[in-house]
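Memo to structure team: turn this sequence into structure tokens by end of day. - J.P.
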Amino acid sequence: MSPEQKYVHDAAKILPAVKENNPFLKEQVGSLIYDYVQMMVGDRAPKITGMLIELSIAQIREYLTTFQALQTRVEDAARLLNQ
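Reply from structure team:
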């Protein structure tokens, strides 16, 4: 299974829990995406993961749907940090 396929598989497991009333939402999403973010941006992973878990529920659900969506969000966050 490729990293992209593993991401989609693992994200599908937590997607039902991505709700406003989930007190563990940030921990769950952060734990899932951190390694993938680290593969993309290295030592900036903690900051960018923190930025991504602060997005709205709709935006989190969107980047959990496909690996490409996560890549786009990571690239956007990295651009913001470079400004």
